Amino acid sequence: MNTIVEANRLEKHYGGFKALSGVSMSIPQGEITGLIGPNGAGKTTTLKAMIGLCDVEGELSVAGRDPRIARHQLMHDVCFIADVGILPKWLRVNQLLDYVDAVHPRFDRNRATKFLGSTEIPPRKRIRELSKGMVTQLHLAIVMAIDVKLLILDEPTLGLDIVYRKEFYDRLLNDYYVGNRTIVISTHQVEEIEALLTHLLFINRGKIVLDAHMSELETLFTEVIVKPDQLTQADGLGPIHKRELLGKKAYIYEAVPRAQLEHLGEVGTPSVADLFVAKMKEGSSVNPLSDSMKSSNDE
Amino acid sequence: MNRLASIPFVALLWREVLENRTLFIWAPVMLALVLFVFAAWLISMAPNDQVSISIQYLSEIFDGLSPLEIAPILMILAVPFMVILYVCALIYLLGALYQDRKDLSVLFWQSMPISNATTVLSKVVTVAAVAPFFSVTVLLVFYTLALLCLTLLGVAYEVQVAGLGYLFLAALTSLILVYLSAFTATLWLMPTVGWLLLFSAFARRAPFLWAAGVFILIGFLEDFLFGSQYLANWVESRANPNQYLIYNLSDVTERMFSYDMLFGVLVGSILLLGAIFMRRFID
Amino acid sequence: MSLLKSILLRNRFTILLATLSLYMLVLVMEGALTGREARVIDFENPFFDLNIRDFEDFQDSQRNEDDKDFLTDESTIL
Questions:
Q1: Which of A121, A163, A276, B105 lies most in the core, judged by the most C-beta atoms within 10 Å?
Q2: Cα dihedral angle (A10, A13, A14, A17), rounded to 10 degrees?
Q3: How far apart, in whole angstroms, are the C-alpha atoms of residue C43 and residue C56?
Q4: Contact A4/A62 with Cβ under 8 angstroms?
Q5: What torsion, rounded to 10 degrees, do the Cα atoms B92, B97, B103, B105 define?
């Protein structure tokens, strides 16, 4: 499998705060990868490091380049939308298009104009006069008109209402995700993009705690709705997470063969959201399973 | 225009103009308006015969003189505009690599395939060539309107106004000198430009305090620790505007390629290089 | 070399320090070599000695010297 991003032991300190403590990951080409973690887990720092907007220690290669020394060459191949409205507020919409048109050799102005035509964004308005949803639409329209290998989205729909959010992801999937393009999306709202993703990265406290293809989840993780009389046995097999579900108990197991679990109750694959909660809780307490988890990461 | 605007570097310069139109365009326009209103008020207060004599005098004294020779003295009229340009350039340079980090748009600018060196260079060119262009354009309009008013007044008072033509030609020539002076001033002051951009890229807040504070600190430390005043000498030895202003077209090469000019550009480039590397740390 | 580079480019403070050190080094070296001192500029341009009351005299003198360079050589700086 071709990878477009390779990171090895990335470290980043902000004063005494360790934003990244050894992030290692590889992002496959042509997939939609979700970088998922709670607030302050290091998502933004990781993404910014990938496009040379923040200096980190460790080995890092994006589209065959080191973003720390070749940011501007890299930007021919990579686009970025951030969580906050980063478009310059004092520019008008058409001035922004002029600028990108002049500066980015892979920008197709007609395509951007076409996308904008289907929105309600007036081309003469200043960006500061647009609503947050419109700014995101505008940024997406620009980015979708740039033919790049890798698109990086950092919490792109934060603070948008449901209509804009849904439209955003529809657009992304239908109009953008073609050919061999790669998309990386970071978010802490898992449910929203669960159906979209083909690859998962969980990040917590500056470390990658899960790096798996969606199709691998089935073999790696099992969720069991445990029968009341099997509870002690179920506890004995070392679930990584337990939760109440309509009066029943649902346990999530990692790297335990399904054959061993089937007699405990109803067996299935956990949802990404449940898995996320399980993985985040796991890191926050001392857990005997953390070693086996680590080894499964390294594979 | 469209062809020109699609050159990446021109787009960068245009971006600077759009962001700083208050500094580059509205500041000189306001100054021109104030001066114009003030002049109109003066003329309206003066007795009629004095006005007509003054116009005749203005028309006669320059009559027949080569515009090239009168131009330097007319540069004095542009002094308020040059002062405003200096102040605006100072404000601009301190904000140039700071403002976009503050409003987070730096993430957008940095996501375009433009290198940090090109970005910093575009700021220098903006100060050297683009901002003076607007000052001079405003002055041109100002001079034209002023001469037009004088001519009309002169005709109304029935005095000879043909000589005002020489005044106008000289005023136009002086604008070329003003523009060239603003350009050589930026080159000569490259250490200052570099210093301001360095701290603009460095500071998380109050770039002016950093820039001024560190300068004073270094000067003080040098004196205190080594008993020398190289920094102070350096600044003092090149603090006279006559070292870089251009009063005559034949001055240009001499100004541009003097030892002090070239050494200043070299030293300024060290600071600019620092600013370019600093740009990697935008968080 | 790459070690030096990685130390100097570690964060914004090291870059500032490195830049200012180099700047001062070059200044001091040049200052010591050339004995740089505050330069007194002897600037002579006839137009700046102009007294507007004598403008007619001045105008005549300029017309008479039309073929000469009106900036004297002493106006050269340095």
A1: A276
A2: 110
A3: 23
A4: yes
A5: 120
Residues of chain A contacting B, Cβ within 8 Å: 48, 51-55, 68, 71-76, 78-80, 82, 84-91, 95, 98-105
Closest CA to B201 of B94, B111, B129, B115: B94
Which element (helix H / strand E) includes A25? strand A17-28
The torsion of the CA quartet A266, A267, A273, A279, rounded to 10 degrees, works out to: 120
Q: Give the pLDDT of chain A (299 residues) as one tens digit per residue.
A: 688 999 999 998 887 888 899 899 999 998 999 999 888 888 889 999 999 888 888 999 999 999 988 899 999 999 999 877 789 999 999 999 999 999 999 999 999 999 999 889 999 999 999 988 889 889 989 998 998 889 999 988 888 888 888 888 888 888 787 777 899 999 888 888 888 899 999 999 889 999 999 888 888 898 988 888 888 888 888 888 888 878 888 889 988 888 888 888 888 888 888 888 888 877 554 444 444 443 343 33
CA separation for the pair A197, A220 (Å, rounded): 17
Quick one: CA torsion of A118, A122, A127, A128, rounded to 10 degrees? -120
Distance between CA B269 and CA B271 in Å, rounded?
Answer: 5
Contact A103 B112 (CB under 8 A): yes
Residue with tokens 């040098």: B222
Q: Positive or negative CA dihedral for B191, B197, B201, B207?
A: positive
How far, in Å, CA of A274 to CA of A253, rounded? 12
Instruction: Report the candidate in B242, B234, B240 with the shortest Cα–Cα distance to residue B263.
Output: B234
Looking up tokens 């029968």 gives A227
Which chains sit next to C, with 3 or more Cβ pairs under 8 A?
B
Number of H helices, E strands in chain A: 12, 13
Q: What is the ipTM of this complex?
A: 0.90
| Of A50, A119, A57, nearest in space to A79 by CA | A50
Looking at the DSSP bridge assignments, the partners of residue A33 are A184, A199
| A-to-B residue pairs, Cβ atoms closer than 8 angstroms | 85
